[in-house]
Amino acid sequence: MNNRPVFFNKVLPKVVDIISQQGFPAHIKPLVIRDIHGRIAIAIDENRSKCSALISSLEKAMLGLGEYCNKTTGGVLCRDDFFGADSVFKSTEIVQWRLPDSNTAIRVLDRQVTGQDWLIPQAASDSLPTRLVFFGVKGGVGRSTALAMLARKLANSGKKVLLIDLDLESPGLSGLLLPPERLADFGIVDWLIEDAVGQGDDVLDRMISVSPLSETTPKEIRIAAAMGNSDLYYLDKLSRAYADVAVESAAESFTKRIRRLVEKLEEIEKPDVVLIDSRAGLHDLAAVSIVGLASTAFLFATDTPQSWQGYKLLFSHWQLHPEIAVKVRDRLAIVQALFPEKDQTKRATAFLERSYKLFSETLYEEIPPGANEDVFNFDLDDESAPHYPMRINWNNRFQEFDPLVLDKGLFSDSEIEASFGNFFREHCNVLRKKSNEPIYFSKRRNTPSFERGIA
Amino acid sequence: MPPVNFRLSAIRHWKDAILLESNTRTANAGQLYGFCAECGIKALLIALGYPHDSEGSPKKNTNLPPGTPKIREHIHKLAQNIVRIQSYATGRNGAKYTAMFPNIGNFSDWLPDHRYYDETAIPTSLNNWKTAADEVGKMIDQAFLDGKIK
Question: How far is the C-alpha of A174 from the C-alpha of A73, rounded, in Å?
């Protein structure tokens, strides 16, 4: 008897084998249920009494999953095992998985402690304002600085900017753009707490601060910061912020609450552009920001193994779920951050090639012979492609940067342009388009070429 | 295997309640909606580590560790004590599930003694009880899918 343990990485391929070999009747479409510890049950949309032979055959096969077979149920579930079978078998959370090198797609109801939001894209809507999300798989790449600079640039060009700080566990955005004495009474975390007890609306109109950075610009930069002007109890509040909350007839998830908050703020503020600072790393807040909110997500990267590895993990997750990848890939745009001062041509080429490799191996589709033009695939040098980076040049004066000193004239416009110029121009192209329109469906004709963009 | 299985009992009571209600036997349907919700909440708490005996029932209401709510009660008492139950079911596991039955207070006028009542004296709250029991039932499905409740 083979007692070798089965580990997590091997479970789903084995499940695919079990399903392929089982020979289900045509009217039965097996549903794979993976619990929060990774244990598997295969659910059949029939009552037990109607498919006893199938159940016993499946139960035998499921033993091959070792400890990853959900033994409570013998690895097989039927309609009568549930309180409300329809809500399980017709769940909107069921996603298709297609494993690499496999032709069999399986339907999976995947139960997770966190991270579900990487697979729940927002529905496209023309009524949404443009939402630009700033994300870095690693921190410390100048994401918040770039956001502050763009906010100022936009306000200067007559756009009303709403800036939302969703980096709740490292609430630093407001520090960059707001002196502490200018913080509003309440922050995002306060809203999450007050909303849970039914008084979110009571704090809503006391959450917005105006950045002094925009005192001399035609339009204001308005900020919903993570924290309010009292930092007392911040951790007490943060430790409760992610809770699901009971509403009229069900529980409302953290994601839905954040989306509701953003929509409420947009309704009140009526901004031209919303800039969202997302938490760095593969965290739920980043998932909500990129998948649940963004019209465009700027993915900050430096040419380091850690950056590419982090994005590979994320993109591979989407790759397993083709129907999600289709909805998400259109909104991604890579930003080459901290672009070095030396060897620029060589380094730009290296970055471009790695970015192309990342997209090619995960989100770009293979081009079958005779395919039409709709295949999601781009050439290496295609400037309209999501892998083609926008660039922010390294300037050590920006590394410990406080945007509030801008108004004291310590930075010249040319210095800012030298670092952020390429990034600004690419953003302008984004803003010309509707919020739910992929940014690279029209060529960026008016922008400098890759080579010309190098300082 | 212990004989008590609150999850399966909750489902059984629900199904029987639906059968009774669809045959206009509303008085006993109401009783069973109450037992369904009671079983569902107990299933959750035991899954979250509530002290239980060898049969699978919650331990008697004496000598419980500090902060442990007394739950050897029917649903009207559990509903009264829901804040303490929510405090017990804290953390990533608990808070998620207790948020799923916001209308548990609907059982405030439910009594086990209704089984002795003249039918005309039982409150006409069947729909409210059904709503709350349905929420608890959906919660146990979610906890079951998560692998938290057996």
Answer: 51
- C-alpha closest to that of B143 among B83, B97, B87: B97
Is A367 an interface residue toward B (CB < 8 Å)? no
Location of structure tokens 């059904």: B130
pLDDT band for position A126 (cuts 50, 70, 90) = low
- How would residue A441 be classed by pLDDT, with cut points 50, 70 and 90? very low
Element containing residue B41 per DSSP (H, E): helix B26-47
Q: What is the mean pLDDT of chain B?
A: 92
Report DSSP letters for A180-204, one per residue.
GGG--S--HHHHHHHHHTT-HHHHH
CB contact A39 to B (< 8 Å) = yes
Exposure of B116 by Cβ count < 10 A (0-12 exposed, 13-18 middle, 19+ buried)? exposed
Angstrom distance (rounded) from CA B70 to CA A333 = 55
Residues of A in contact with B56 (CB under 8 A): none
Distances (CA, A) of A316 to A65, A282, A324, A361, A362: 23, 13, 12, 9, 6
Closest chain B CA to residue A254: B96
Q: How many residues does chain B have?
A: 150
- Residue A159 CA to chain centroid, in angstroms? 25
Question: Which parts of chain B sit beneath pLDDT 50?
Answer: none
Give the C-alpha separation, A224 to A168, whole Å. 11
d(CA A3, CA A449): 60
Chain A: residue nearest B18 by CA? A83
Q: How far apart are alpha carbons A324 and A375 in whole angstroms?
A: 16
The Cα of B138 is separated from the nearest Cα of chain A by a number of Å equal to: 7
CA distances from A253 to A31, A257, B99 (A): 24, 6, 10
- pLDDT tens-place string over residues B102-138: 999 999 999 999 999 999 999 999 999 999 999 999 9
Chain B nearest CA to A91, separation (Å): 11
- Model ipTM over 0.95: no
Q: Is A53 buried (19+), middle (13-18) or exposed (0-12) by CB count in 10 A? A: exposed
> Beta strand pairing status for A245-246 and A273-277?
unpaired
Buried b (16+ CB within 10 A) or exposed e, A199-229: ebeebbeebbbebbbbeebebbbbbbbbbbb
Least Cα separation, residue A360 to chain B (angstroms): 34
Residues of A in contact with B92 (CB under 8 A): 113
SS3 for A222? strand
**DSSP assigned state of A363:** T
In this prediction, what percent of chain B has a pLDDT beyond 90? Answer: 69
**Contact (Cβ atoms closer than 8 angstroms) between residue B145 and residue A111:** yes
Give A166-203 pLDDT, tens digit per residue: 999 888 665 668 888 889 999 999 999 999 888 999 99
Beta bridge partners of A162: A222, A274
The residues that bridge with A41 in the sheet, in sequence order, are A33
Residues facing A236 on adjacent strands: none
Interface of B with A in 83-102 (CB under 8 A): 92, 95-96, 98-102
Residues A9 and A222: their CA atoms lie apart, in Å, by: 46
A103: distance to nearest CA of chain B, Å? 27
DSSP letter (8 states) at residue A442: S
Question: Positive or negative CA dihedral for A161, A290, A352, A442?
Answer: negative
Residue A452 has pLDDT above 80, yes or no: no
Selection from A280, A277, A191, A200 nearest residue A237 by Cα: A191
